[in-house]
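Quarterly update, task 2.4: 6-chloroguanine-bound model.
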Amino acid sequence: MVFHVLTLFPEMIREGMNYSIMKRAMEAGALHLNPVNIRDYTIDKHNKVDDYPYGGGAGMLMQAQPVYDAYKAVEATCSKRPRVIFLTPQGKTFNQSMAREFAAEEELVFLCGHYEGIDERVLEEIVTDEVSIGDYVLTGGELPAMVMMDTIARLIPGVLNNEDSAQDESFAGNLLEYPQYTRPEVWMDKLVPAVLLSGHHANIEKWRLEKSIERTRNKRPDLYQKYEEETARDRSKKLK
Ligand code: 6GU
């Protein structure tokens, strides 16, 4: 999987992704990160990449030319036209099922805006997907791009080992993760639930599912409703 990131802050991307599991995945060759500095593609003699908005208004806009030329340079290295994800609060809200869809691609291009935005004409020309990470406003697309890359990367075969385990199955089934415990058996007079020390695997599975359901009902009633609807649908399918 190759992540190309069009940005004015390539070091922020390089640094932010260079830890823990992402770092190991890149070293192992399961993941390749290509931060592209949009400023490298400006034809302006003062290296300018932004200008005032036509019609007036606050702030500066990123100009079309450097963004387009940076994209074309990336596209030239791809075997087919890649999906280009523009990070914007106006986009569709990112979730686990979108992550699964993007994880099936061989290459992805993330376009990070800054200042007040990007000239609409280049967006029309190159963007295939507009994605937001939630209903709040950030100063730029770099953090959202890193959120998406982290989520997508852990779904790619060879990125997580057994030890880290792909526990996104919790969200796949619309359930949250069950509570977990490690040594010692007693801490501040609090005991580890006895079933987990029993060695009885069927009982442990049953307990964990019950806890997942209970937690989801308490913490995320919206998710719990989806879980109920889908398990009801599955049951009626089985009866047919
Ligand atoms: Cl993708 N970009 C910006 N600038 N702000 C956001 C966002 C994206 N998602 C939520 N807030």
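Highlight for this quarter: Residues 96 and 171 are 7 Å apart (CA to CA).
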